[in-house]
Structures are given as C-alpha cells and as structure tokens.
Request: fold
Amino acid sequence: MLTAVPAAQAAPGDPWQRVGADILSGVSGAVVVDREDGRIDSLIVRDNKKPGQNRIARVRQSAGKAPRVQPLEWRGELPVDLESIEPVPGRRGEFLVLGSAGKGFQIRVSGGEAVVLRTFQVPTGLAGDDYESFQLASVGGRTVALWADRGQDSRPGTLYAAEFSLDKLTFGPKRSAEIRVPYPKSKVRHVSDLEVLPNGELLISSASDPGDDGPFDSALYSAGRVSVGDNGVRLEVKQPRGLGTYPGHKIEAVTCANSSCAELLLGTDDENAGGYARVVRR
Reply:
C-alpha cells in the first residue's frame, strides 16, 4: 500500500511548495477537495504513460509545513498522459479526468485508491490537437464542458465548449475559438490549463517548454467568457489580459482554491525538476 510521505520544502521565502522531485511526479492537473484555515487538501494528476507509474495523488499543504503527498493506486483501465481533473457535481468523491488524446475517465476516489467507473471521449477536434485541460461549469443552470488544445508557437490554442450530460457522459454541439497569448515568447503552449469563474469568465494559463531541463516560464490570463443562450453555448474569446507571470515554472494546473475563486491553486510540471504548487490571489 502506498503511504503519505512529506515532500521537500522549496527554498526559504519561495512561495512555491515542492510536491514532486522528478520527471514522474509533476502536476498536470489539480482540484481542491477541502480547505480549512491554513490547510489545503487537493488531488493532483500526473502525465505518466507507462504501467507502474503514478497517475493520481493526494496533497495536503499546511501553513509552515512541508506538503504531504500520498500517491493513490489506480484500479481499472490505465490512462495515458492525464492532464486534468474535475469534480463531478453532486457526487462526492467522483471526478472526471482527461488524457491528452481526449479520452476521459469517471473515477471514484476513496481511501488509497482511484477506481474507474466509466470512460468517455471528447468530440473530434482539429488534426494534431493535444489537450491539457478539461473543465465543467454551471452556466444558466446548464452544465457546460470546456477543453482546449494547447497550441504550440505559431499554432494557436483552440478552446472548445459544449453542453454536457453528466448521466450519459455525452456532449452537445461544440463551439470553438482560437487563443494566442503574447507571453511567453518562445516554445509556448498557449493554453496549458483553464478555469471558469462563477460569473463565466475564462482564465487560462500559458507556458513555455523548451525541454526537460527548462528553463520554464508561465503566465495567467483572463481570456473571455462562456455563456448559454437560445442557440446553445456561446464562447466570447477576447485578447488575453495578463494577470501575472511566473518565471522558472511550467504551470499546467489552475483551479479555484475557494468557492468565490478569489484565490487560485497553481500546479507545475517542471519535468526533471519535479512539481510545485502555490496559492495566489486573483
């Protein structure tokens, strides 16, 4: 059985907390599952591809302490290259996770394991799509799924949205929009993750990835809004407005750290340097 172990603290004064020490223990997606004063409990997924490599872990961050990381056992069909995790509304302990090729899994997390319940596939997008994000949002009382191809340099990221059936794990007609960010400047993935605020505002992260040893760079942006009308889902993508830059790290996880989303939990996949997490105010 896998047990919790403390992760090394970052350097004194560094707001990032280390939650993984090597290329197999980065953070490619995260969701906050509980929060009390001075403590955040989250689940993170990892983009590992081979049998025997960890796919999902619990993380506890407490003020003044090194994070505690508990790798979980995966039960069921083994995913390849997980990039996101999202809670299933109204079903405590259940989550949707998505791999880079667009295959998703509904899982139940309990004790020390994650059990596969069902699988799904996002609608076909463009040739070469590589997904690093998946998000559910309640918009006008309707459930909307959003996911995005990350893009690469001259190829913009492509954001997709569609109404989503939680019972059937199926999608309605999809909408799409291109996203380009002004920064980072090179080796850029225009959308490395996304988050939807309670008012429908779209937040995205972008990241540069020149290789397993970096150097990495990231930024956060407000990029538009999602809404639902008589004609279905509507995507309003605008010129991204910068919210902050984060040199030295490759952000691949952005998720609300509280119900108002006044704070965000960021997670990084820094390849050979491992993974880090921190909370920022929006």
Q: What stands out?
A: The chain has a mean pLDDT of 94.
